[in-house]
Amino acid sequence: MENKISAVRKELKPFCETDAELESRIGDDELITSELIANTKIRLLWFAMNEVFDGKLDVKQNILEILNSKSRLEEILRERVKTTLDIIRQERECELRREKL
Questions:
Q1: Full-prediction pTM beyond 0.70?
Q2: Which of 41, 50, 73, 81 is a good FRET partner for 62, with 20 to 30 A between their CA atoms?
């Protein structure tokens, strides 16, 4: 996860003039990690619940199967990292706008 967060930070860095601006737009790694974990749990549950409609009625087993599938888990994490950083960035930008008012 840390590698994925670093990769996304590198993608965003050219859009920020300084490291401080990057921090103010995104936040620290601890915040990112906690948000990522929360978002990932929600997404895993969403996928597991969707599998109920495909006849796999044991949600706990569905979650375990997703966690044991390296490709599915990587896909979820990749998606969640970008989504989490986008959410944090948007929240920070809203906070900065409110402070200017």
A1: no
A2: 81
